[in-house]
Every structure is written in structure tokens, then in C-alpha cells.
Description:
about 130 residues, mainly alpha, about 0% strand
Amino acid sequence: MNDPSLNERKKQLRIQEWKGITTEIMKWGLILWLLFPLSRLTAGRYMLVRVLIGILLFIIFAGKTFYDTVIMSAIRQRRTSLKEDLVSFLGMILGAMLLVGLVLLMFAMLIATWQEQISQPQDPVY
């Protein structure tokens, strides 16, 4: 009934599942770290490259996760666990919310800067 090889196989499957979950968390954590300079709009040129790499990785990871969870599950049996899919999905939602929020913040600050420049009285040119 309690076959040692069966228990060992279950243990290996649990370890493999947690490796996948840890990989997903680290992947989305890297993207958040790369996109963090968006919260400070006075970032330098090297920050722009970092943000662009973050956006590129977000698009790649979100596309791969979409492909794995939606398209491949319709084609054949799923290879990932529900927990891995949930972590990936939450990472995509968090990343998308962060990107949208920071882009809106950037536009709001840009409009506020323009309004401030317009409202300042200008010296006449003679």
C-alpha cells in the first residue's frame, strides 16, 4: 500500500511544482524590478534601457503564459500546475496594472508640467 517509490515520486512532483512556482515568482519579480524606474520620471538614459528591457520581457512572458495556458491547454493536456498558472496570471495582472498606472501617471505629470508652463506669465520680448 505504501510503496516507497510512489512516495518518492510524489515528493519529486511536489519539488518540481515548487520549482516552477519559484521560477514564475522570480520572473515577474525581475520584470517589476526592471520597470521600477517608471515610478521616478527623472530617470537617466540607462534607466530608459532598463525600462525598455522590462517592457520587452513583460510582453514575452505574458505572451508565453497566454500561449501555454490558453492555446496549449486546448491542444493537449496541460503540463503546468494550477498554482503555477495562478502565479503567472497574477504576475500578468500586476504587471499590466503597473504599466497602465505608471503610463497614466507619466501623462498626468506631463500635462501638469504643460499647464504650469502655460499659466506662468511670460516676459514680453522687445
